[in-house]
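Lab channel / #folding
Pinned by the channel admin:
"Please post every new chain as: sequence first, then the structure tokens as a reply. Keep commentary short and put observations after the output so the thread stays searchable."

First post following the new format, from NK:
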Amino acid sequence: MKKTEPAPKKPLPPQATIRRLSVYLRYLNGLDGDGVKVISSHDLARRLALNPAQVRKDLAYFGEFGKRGVGYSVKKLRDHIVKILGLQKMRKVAIIGAGGRLGTALALYTGFEKRNFKVCALFDKDPAVIGNEVDGVGRILSIEELPRTVKETGIEILVLTIPAAAIKEVHDIIMLSGVRAILNFAPYKMLSTEDVAVHNVDLTTELEALSYLLSLRESGLTSLENNLPADNE
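Reply from TO:
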């Protein structure tokens, strides 16, 4: 009997595409709220300062959503992107470094739940802030309580807002806590594992990217923005 070859795996979309899906979703939510029923890739791209071909390419990773000459159903495309991004259910989030300024600001931000992310636990290693109450979330716990809390509450995502040196101190307890994903704001690159997906946010890099775009505008070259190569993507 002839052996059947497994079907080749479809390549995963680049991270730049996933980031743009979030931008599309935010904009589609606004259009749906305004009662807009259909939008073309050209109009979507123009309103978001993108290239229409880039929009079509991003969406093509996940299937066919529009009709040539008609465009995309705003509601259906929005619902597809919600499903692609796994936002049909509430994702439980915890913040480590909740006693610091960034951690406190994120803990108090009320917009996360609108996107199906709920901050349900706060942690720190500083005895001076452990036990403090944060409105709407609760008491700041010791980092030592992380594994137990993850297990009891089903936390999936950790947000790290601590110094690089502190990550080295608590790295093992974080990676072995049972969480499935980490958003790291610290200037220390953490690596993903088979069990834990890590996304490192380098604020300096983001500021440098903005500085580049400002330089284009200052040089009178803003029209080049739509022709920049996609992040290779």
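NK: Confidence is low (pLDDT under 50) at residues 223-233.
TO: also worth noting, Residues 15-84 form a domain with the Arc Repressor Mutant, subunit A fold (CATH 1.10.10.10).
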